[in-house]
Every structure is written in structure tokens, then in C-alpha cells.
Design brief:
Phosphatase 2c, domain 1; six-stranded antiparallel β-sheet; Phosphorylase Kinase, domain 1; Transferase(Phosphotransferase), domain 1
Amino acid sequence: MSKILKINYASECLAGGKAQNEDSCGVQIPVGQTLTTKGIAIAIADGMSGSDAGREASQACTDGFLNDYFSTPDSWTVKTSAHKIMSALNHWLHGNGQRQYKSHKGMVTTLSAMVLKSNTGYIFHVGDTRIYRLRDKEFKQLTHDHRVEINENRSLLTRAMGIDVRLDIDYRTIPLEVDDVFLFITDGVHEFVSDKSLKKTINENIDDLDKATNDIIQAALDNNTNDNITVQLVKIEELPGENEEEFYQKLTELPFPPPLEANMILDGYKILRHMFSNKRTEVYLAQDTETGQNVVLKAPSVNYDDDIEYINRFLHEEWAGRRINESHVMKVLEITRTRTALYYIAEHIEGRTLRQWMEDEPRPSITVVRDFIKQIASGLRAFHRLEMIHQDLKPENIIIDEHGTLKIIDFGSTKISGIDEISTPVVENNLLGTINYTAPEYHTGSSGSNRSDIFSLGVIAYELLTGHLPYGKELSAKNIRRVSYRSLKNFNPEIPLWVDKAVEKAVQINSEYRYSRLSEFVAALSKPDKQVMRNEFVPLMKRSPAFVWRMITFIMVLINLYLLYLLNK
């Protein structure tokens, strides 16, 4: 049976040597699918002693982190989710401290948090609360104290939540192992109990975390701690893991649908006609027999009924579509009835693909092209905001409806950052996307980014304006260093130079030279980009890599001829 992420934990938070407890801690363990997509969150905070509202600050940070983390999109990475939450909490603490207490020390606290997701631990740290790990015989501090010693009797925090608008967060990831024990403590403990004693206490009570917690607290009290005492122990009991057979069995709980024909009914969806098929999917026009609504039913091709990688990607396609709500992206609809086969339902869009439109309208105006690129960019932006990369943008995957609205209709190659953090036995080795629109970095085995989608969008803009491809041929790992950009003006002299430069920047071979945001490309197509048009020095390798490589080859030939001359002299 497949295992799930499982922990055992114990915690205690006491006033200790102070009249008021300004520490806070907590653990949040979700259930169901959220445990897989988001993991387990743990937090500990220590309100700064000189703060006007240290107690409120620490409580706000632990509660805010533990609750808000699970409200962030499942598609976001742990790092993105945590950083956005901690930054928002920091702004709230700083602003509230200034308003209520008229001081930069109004609401200040440390915060150390950890997210356990799949087989990885993600650590976020500000201040001098500490996280340790006990693994076998090694007891290791995983955080660094943000504290500077003034003298023997005085030290100051150099970083804390709420003390400044700007926030620096220590971040690291660590692999998890079964039986790992993580210790979260505040300075009321680690300043009064040695690491050696902490390690010994945990080892002696490895199967009784409550006793280990109580013994550590007692040790701090016996050593006359003058601060609050917080101890939190977390032990990894099980880690998710399944072999390929188990994973495949889970994916294929629903069978592939049989070949569907007109008037057949599948789970209340009446097939009206077969729309089209490709090597991956079968697409039908169907009608919901309950509502009378026409929908698109998309089913996997029977050619892949034993392909674990393909089935996994098909399921992710629906998963991604259900989370995007944007007017320029096809809507994936919720299925309220019990499914008896593997498929998903999407809105039906009356129209033609952008490819069909391009064949019918071979030379559109720049105004039309700008509008099209702006609409597609709006749809892509919905993916990027959720930390998804489309990876297969092309004219065939875009439909223009009867009102002139463009919609992205295919998500089969979408990379979902939050899902990629979850370990599975599936290894994806295939080059995704379509060769003429695939960003160069994919050909060299590098990972994609939002700039990869911008490259594809740039190729579409180029093709709309000229009917050709920017490099004149299909890109591959062998030729990407030898190709040169062909100016739009070679095919359409009426195109302004600044439009040509905007498109050229979008389709740069090196992703670092492309636009970093879709909005920049859209703006550059609308008016001259001064930075792009500025007559500044551009390295020859960037301007004409093919010429550089020809010259290098020529020089090498001359050198070899000279060496041969010397040998024969």
C-alpha cells in the first residue's frame, strides 16, 4: 500500500522565567489531497522583549503562517507561498506597530517555519529561534541566529519580523528521512540548555516525544532560564513513496473511454459528433443531458492506455484547467456526476484555430496582430500567476471565437511548479511542445520559465506578421548556436524597425536577453521601447552568433595550416 506523509509531534509553550508568555508555536496537518499538494506546516515565534506588543506579534505570525499557507494556490511552490505570506505578515506587523505604538519596535517577533512536503523539508527563518535535526547520531542546527553580541551581557537581533518594511528571509531545503526528529526552540531554551544535553534528552526519549519535551523544559527551568520557554518536537514516521506499479494502479482507477460515436451517452453526456483527434487525445462535441449545454468532452487516446507518463500528464491537464479562470483561457468545467471513465469536460467555443485564421488571413495589419498578442498574453499571464508554464503555445492551441476573442485551449504540456515538488516514480524525458515554437532552452535540456512561453508568443507574432519563422528553420540542439534572426523587414518592409526589435527581443536564443514579463513585450509592440532601440553596444556573439562561429572556424583553419607549415619546414 502506498504510504503518506505522517508525523508524530509534541509541543509546549510556557511563560518560564517571565510574567507573560510572548512565545508562540503550532503545527498544521491537513487531510486528503491537501496533505499531498501542500504538506504539513510548522512554526515557532518569539516576541521581542523590547517590543510593545511582542505577544500579539508572535501569535499573529504563527497563526498567519499556519493558516494562510494552506490558502495559497496548490500550483505555487512552497517557497513562493511562504515568502508571500511572510512578506505580508511583516508589512502588517510593521504598519500596525507604527500606527498603534508609533515605534519601529511596536510589533516585532522572530519566526522560524518549516513545511514538510513529499520527501523534502522547506525551512524559512528570521531571528534567533532555532530548528535542529537529529538524524541517527548527528544533531545539527539548521538555522543561523540573526543576533550580534554587543558585550558579555547584551546582544541584539539583527533581523526580525515587523522591525522594517524590508525583510530578508533565510531559506533552504533538506531531504527528509524516516525517523528524522526536528527540534524547534526559542532562546529561553537554547541559551540555558546545551546542544549536548538536548541531543541526549531526545535520544533517551525517542519514542516518547511528550516526555522529551517536558524534560527539556525542566532542564531550562533547572538552569534558571529568565525567558519564555517553547519546545516543539516533530518526528517523521512515514514518507510518501510508491513504486511505479502502485502509481500506475492509482492513475488507472478509471478506465479509458471506449470509442465514442454520435448519440452514445457517457455519464449523462450525449455525444453529438467527433470533432478531431491527434496522437494524444480524442475530442468530441457533447451535450449535457441535464442542462442541455453543449460542451467539449476530451478523452485520452487508447494508444496510451499503458503509458504512465501520458496518463499522469492528462490528469494534470484537467487539474490545471480547473484552477484557471480567465476570459482568454478555455474553461474546464466541474463534473458533478460520478465518472465511469477517464475524460474531462470543457466549454465549447464556436470558432476556428489561429492556424486556420492565419491561412485565411495571410497578411494581417499590425493593429490586428497587436490585439491578438495582447489577448494571448492575457491568457498566458493567468498561467504564470499560478506558477504554471504552458510549454506548448502554438496557433493550433488557440481558438478565435465568433466575437474575435482568442482563447488558449490546450494544457497538456503545462508545467505546474507546486506539483513538480511532489515525488513520483514518473520520469518525464520527452521534449514537450511543438518544434517550431519550442524555446531553445528545452532543446539543450534546461528547464523552462515564463520566458520560454514569451519565446513561443514571439514566434507566433513573427509568423502573423510575415508568414515565416524567425530563424528560417526548425531549431535543434545542434543548430541553435549557428542560426541568426531574420528581420521582419526582410519579408514586410513596411513594418516599423521598433516592432522588429520588439519581436527580436522576444525570440532571443538566450532566455536572459528576452523580456522578463509578458507585459513588457505587449507594451513594446504598442510603442517604441527606448531601451531596446537605444544605440548601445551589443556583443557580436549576441548580434550574429553564426558569423562569430564562422570566423572562429576560419581562424582555427589558419592556425592549423601554420602549424603544418612549421612541422614541414
